[in-house]
Design brief:
This protein is α/β, with parallel strands linked by helices. It has helices at about 40-55, 85-95, 105-115, 145-150, 155-165, 170-180, 185-195, 200-205, 205-210, 220-235, 250-255, 255-265, 280-285; strands at about 1-5, 10-20, 20-30, 65-70, 100-105, 120-125, 125-130, 135-140, 245-250, 270-275. The strands form two sheets. The protein has a five-stranded mixed beta sheet with strand order 3-2-1-4-5, with helices on both faces. A five-stranded mixed beta sheet has the order 8-7-6-9-10, with helices on both faces.
């Protein structure tokens, strides 16, 4: 048996996988090893292991594959930076397992490309991309985060809209609807973006509202299309798009897949697959089916 864990800031998706596929799926809070104390990480892992142990003997788990955003494993080492507490907790829960740590970018590449070379993109709250040779990431156009980049992601769309809203550049009808739907006075917005705990998540939270008006507002269409166009121009166009297939992972990209395919056609790019989550592709990858 193997365990696959995909951890983000707010939640972790866990899958216990046997030879015939998924045996059990579990959701727990997210784990950020850079800021969370070891005790809190241990409690979350114990929660997942406890759920799994109701259906399986965890001593039989031979592999654990742990993926997380921002996770960095120094070259030549096996443990992620600041990952001692995480590793200790996983080894306690799964005592006979070999543990692999990898970034969310590698999990996206494995999910959409399997063991073949290709280009993988993440389009969620943030964005990222890479060229993958079937085993490892060989090139990465840096994302830059929501301040310096993240083009194509939900937070970038929210940032573009909010910047226009604060300057009075959003058409009046849309602006009035937005102001009546959210608490977006100037001081609240500035506080959330510049002093809030999760500014990217805050800006990305407006993306569903913006997208819901895509069909009836030219302003919104131009904003959304421009966000994806920037991602194609500034990130994906730096890869060899004529040679490699391009796959996308992420809830935001999945929600906008028709728009994304339309903008991609301007660059002669057809996306080979657009997945809401990498987990199904990762299961296929680790079972040797992809």
């Amino acid at each position: 048996m193997i365990v696959i864990a995909e951890s983000g800031a707010t939640k972790t998706d866990w899958c216990l996988v046997g030879g015939d596929g998924v045996q059990k799926s579990v959701k727990t809070p997210g784990m950020n090893i850079a800021v969370m104390p070891a005790k809190a990480i241990g409690e979350i892992i114990s929660q997942a292991a406890g759920d799994f142990s109701c259906d399986a003997d965890l001593a039989l788990v031979r592999e654990v594959h742990y993926y997380a955003a921002g996770l960095f494993v120094p070259e030549g080492e096996k443990l992620p930076r600041n990952g001692e507490g995480l590793d200790a907790a996983l080894r306690t829960a799964f005592p006979n397992a070999e543990i692999e740590y990898a970034s969310d970018l590698l999990d996206a590449a494995r999910a959409v490309c399997g063991h073949s070379a290709g280009i993988a993109a993440i389009l969620g709250t943030g964005s990222n991309s890479c060229l993958y040779d079937g085993e490892k990431i060989v090139r990465n156009v840096r994302s830059g985060g929501f301040i310096l980049g993240d083009e194509g992601g939900g937070a970038c769309l929210g940032k573009l809209f909010m910047a226009d809203f604060l300057k009075g550049l959003v058409p009046e009808e849309i602006s009035d609807e937005f102001a009546s739907s959210f608490k977006v006075d100037y001081m609240t917005v500035v506080g959330e973006v510049y002093r809030g705990e999760a500014p990217s998540k805050y800006l990305g939270s407006f993306a569903p509202w913006i997208l819901s008006r895509y069909d009836r507002s030219e302003y919104i269409r131009n904003l959304v299309d421009g966000n994806f166009r920037s991602f194609l121009k500034r990130a994906l166009s730096q890869y060899d798009l004529k040679t490699y297939p391009v796959g996308v992972v992420g809830g935001f990209g999945y929600a906008c897949q028709e728009i994304l395919q339309k903008i991609g056609s301007e660059f002669e790019v057809t996306f080979s697959c657009i997945l809401p989550s990498p987990i199904e592709g990762l299961i296929e990858y680790h079972l040797g089916q992809k």
